Each structure stands twice: as C-alpha cells, then as structure tokens.
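Aim 2 progress update. The chain analyzed this quarter is reproduced below.
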Amino acid sequence: MDLGINGLRVLVTAGANGIGLEIARAFVREGARVHVCDVDEAALDALATSDPALTRSLCDVADRASVARMFDDALGALGGLDTLVNNAGVAGPTGKVDDINPEDWDRCLAVCLTGQFNCARLAAPHLRQSPNGSIVNLSSLAGRLGFAMRAPYAAAKWGVIGFTKSLAIELGGDGVRVNAILPGLVAGDRQRRVLEAKAQQRGVGFAEMEAIAFSYTSIKDYVTPQQLADHIVFLASPRCRTVSGQAISICGDTQMLA
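Predicted structure tokens:
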C-alpha cells in the first residue's frame, strides 16, 4: 500500500532506541525524511552507523532551551516539518502515593506531559504550513485506566489525552490532525522493569506478576514496537486526513492494569 508520504518531514522525540527508533525506521522505509532526538548520547552516536539516513540531536524534552536548539537542528536538516511524534517519556516511580519522592513526580510529568507541550508549541507554526500536518502523541493505556502505584505516570498520560483532544480542536481549522496512541503491555526493557518493580512491591515473582497483568487482557501477548510504529505511520499519512482528536488503544483489549 502506498501511503503517499514519500518526502514527509518527520521529527521523532526519544528516537535513538526502543519504540522511538522503530517509529523512525518505519517512516524511513516509506520514504520519509526523519530527524530524531534523544537524551542518550551514545545511542545517538550509534545511529551514524546503524541508521545514517536519520539526522539527530541531543535533547531533553523537559528542558525548553534544549528543545529550542533541537528544533533549530531539525528544521535545518528537514527544511520544514510535516509530522511531530511526541514519543519521549519515562516510566516514573513505582510506589504508593505517600511513598513517592516529589522530585520523581515532577520529573515524570515534566518529561511525559510538559515535554509534549514544549515540542508542540514550536512545531505548530510549521505544521500549519504543511499540506499534511499531524501530531501523534504517545499516551498509554494508563491514560484511560487507573494504575495503582503508578500515579505519576497515569496522571501524565491522562493529561496527554486532554492535551491531544484540545490541540485537535485548536489546530483542526488549519488542517493539522492530532491523535494519541495508547499502548498496552509493550515488549521491551521498560515494560520488564515496570513489572519487576510491581512484583517487588507485591512480594511475588516476575512470572506471577506477568501472568496477573495478562489475566486482564483478551489477547495475552505483548504489543510490539513495530505494531505501534505501523499505526503511527498510517496516522501521519493522507489516508487518515479526517482522523483527529482520537485516543487509539493498541492493547490487546485490556480491561484493567495490574
């Protein structure tokens, strides 16, 4: 299927590894031009060999000065912007609300929610000039369901959905689409660390904690980063020109977060 995005100019935050790198590679395969940013300098340097088509910047999305510098790099490399993928996020602390370090709360919201604002505010003027402008924000199933012992992360991801729906209304008149993706249990190191922390809190083993998590899903398997990337690329294509303001769950039909 030709998605019609050859030459699309794309910025992916936290794009040097994990889900972000899978997203960036999926766009490149469709002929898009992609700039990535990340806080992991070593991972960015490795892209020169593994993914030379990607231009890149060191950036902490929670730091507005860092974001401004990164946008200068991205716009210089791409010559404009058609798609922003707000992928950057952190897992945040695991613990009861009265045990959470307030600094950990602040950092989680600064990256997962305010970081998306920091990027969107600079992207918006350029996306308005695009014939196919779009933003895809990474939320989480934790942005639709409660998530015990993960209050900072859940609060941030619920905020992302409100931010997404508000931006969709605000930018829709300029032809810019804004959507959110809500992953469930995603295969990878971050999900494993989250389940390990939950297992420790509950005093059970990892395998038991994993089984508990999957007991609340219809499809008892992990979501892959490639699945997320495919959906995001499709949302950024002209084939989704009237899809906006949506919070799209990719979660195996999860009814509850353990």
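The first strand starts at residue 9 and ends at 13. Residues 215 and 227 are 21 Å apart (CA to CA). These observations will guide the mutagenesis experiments scheduled for the next reporting period.
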